[in-house]
Amino acid sequence: MRPKKHRTTGSGDLFRARLDQIINMKHELVQLAGKVDWDWIDGEIAPLYSENGRPGIASRFMIGLLLLKHIYGLSDEGVCERWVHDPYFQYFTGEEFFQHAFPHERSDLSHWRKRLGDKLELLLAESLRVAHEAGALRSQDIKRVTVDTTVQPKAITFPTDAKLLHAAIKGLNRLARKHGVKLRQSYLRIAKTATMMAGRYGHAKQFKRHQRQLRILRSRLGRIIRDIRRKIEGQAVLENTFALPLSRASQIRSQQQRQRGFKLYSFHAPEVECIGKGKAAAPYEFGVKASIVTNNRRSPGGLFVLHARALPDNPYDGHTLRDVIDRTETLTGCAIERAYVDKGYRGHDAQNPRRIFISGQKRGVFGVIKRELRRRSAIEPIIGHLKADGHLGRCYLKGRAGDAANVILSAVGHNFRRILAWLRELLCLILLQLWRTFGRPAPLNSLLNGRLVTQWNANHCYSS
User: Fold this and answer.
1) pTM of the model
2) Neighbour count for residue 459 (Cβ, 10 Å)
3) Sequence-ordered alpha helix ranges (H) in 156-288
4) Torsion angle of alpha carbons 416, 422, 423, 429, nearest 10°?
5) Is 453 exposed, middle or buried (0-12, 13-18, 19+ CB in 10 A)?
6) pLDDT tens, 195-227?
7) For residue 152, what is the DSSP state?
8) What is the end-to-end Cα distance of the chain in Å, rounded?
9) Burial class (CB in 10 A: 0-12, 13-18, 19+), 438
10) How far apart are CA 81 and CA 83, in angstroms?
11) Which DSSP state fits 313?
């Protein structure tokens, strides 16, 4: 059922402290809470609720908690713990009185991320609207953009053959114990020893011994697969339960290191892809490709992320440009005049190729376009901030839906960080101007001041 609208009484309480009496109402989080249109967000996510059942958690509480998590780069547990002892966090999520305990469960954040799904782009649109309203982002700044792709790594270990085989053996044993399937032998001890020795032999470049340990792991995994299939034969429920894990284990057992085509890089996260971006430090990264769009010209509040999206199946960059530009125009409500990209977008399918400028291009590049093309590389530190200050550097969410949600929320967190910095700087400028106006000592009486100045000048001239 749709949650009830948040209401404040405005009255005091003898046994509880009002938040507006114990915090600084000029703090940037307080100002940001007043600029976000919570009612509009609540109205947009209303169709996601059923008409029956008990009322859900207030949307401002959960949306505010998601925003705080990605603004400050916290985990789900971390933002819940900080909410208890930070009155500014409580005020941002709509509380009226200071709370001494977290009122909900941490798992509610996971449920809300799954529930929002595609609606998460509304938060990105709202961050841009708030930035425009606060004066940190101007309309002319979003007409010329920079587009680039990066890799969002998944929270998995580096996928070697020995690690994958060992993970498949442990996964099948864990599932068999859960559903009461008794195996002839688990091979857990043998698999652990073989994985450890395979790593040591590979490091010592003793590849014959390394391959011997891999054969041990493959043969034991095959025995477990055949044993499970014999035990669940004829039981429809168990066959459906084990169908997907057994297919993953069979794929891991049959695939080779240098084979072409589809490969599994994680037993628990089959959506992981191997992506090569040409980096010397990390030739291959394991995760999902993500597209990032920023304004080319620096706005008063800095560079904002205008659009962010996960690109599963590792598509060619040039084949995604048209869709990315269309989605950016829909999100910002402003037509894009020029887009600047790197050489990975050569052969793109943009609707108007004349407004796309590629790094290193000579034809048609002069004047303002040449200066703006040199600013294309300014998107690289923005991607670095998304990974270092946000959660784009390592995705802990499950499945492709988790990858998509993490990319968008990381962009939302970056935009709100820029807005908070802008509000903080704006407040400092206002306080400085007030100090210059009212903080100086009052001047003396004009006649007395003139008489003293005249006497000082006379004495100074006489002494000199």
Assistant:
1) 0.87
2) 10
3) 161-178, 188-203, 207-232, 236-254
4) 170
5) exposed
6) 999 999 999 999 999 999 999 999 999 999 999
7) E
8) 89
9) exposed
10) 5
11) T
